[in-house]
Amino acid sequence: DGDAVNRVLRAGPHIASTQANSAQANSAQADKRSSRIALKKTLFGRRGWGEAPVQGHDMDSYSLASLALQLMASIVSLSNFPAASFPETRDLPEIHQIPLTEIRQRFCHGKCAAQAFYKPGEGVYLDVDFDLANDAFARSVLLHELVHHLQRVGGRFQNMPSECDRWYAAEREAYEIQNRYLEQVHSTHRVNVNAWRARCDS
Question: What is the 3-state secondary structure (H, E, C) of 78-90?
Fold first, then answer.
């Protein structure tokens, strides 16, 4: 799975060696820049890249793409998702970094403590103030939402009898994988999965 990540991240034309003439080197570098831009477009579409920077800890689009691929590989290695679940770059969800108040207002009318949200067809919405580069817990929240993406595209839990049962099973699995990831990166932070339970019998 790590090899799959490396193949994606290292894709692009080979930069000319130091012995090549300057014209060849410039051409190769231009091709590599074009490949990076194409990857950004594939991962984030028109709404997820090239926008004006938002004040906070937002990552540049290429770094965020790399992180998303690494987290997808972690999900597969930390769970019973089949290796085939590792997506092609074209299958990754868009990732939107927006203010926390906007996330909560949009998805729960301001009445929840959500820090991120996955919406099928639109992608992952993530608090723009998360320091993804330096904060393992922030990365684990993104991983949690990417689990939901894999669950959705793979039809996981679709045979459960009710929407509530499916939601509860999906959340529990995402939190469990999130905690395994936090343990793997030696973070002391954990999510208390047993602190809440769904009531699906009503």
Answer: HCCCCHHHCCCHH
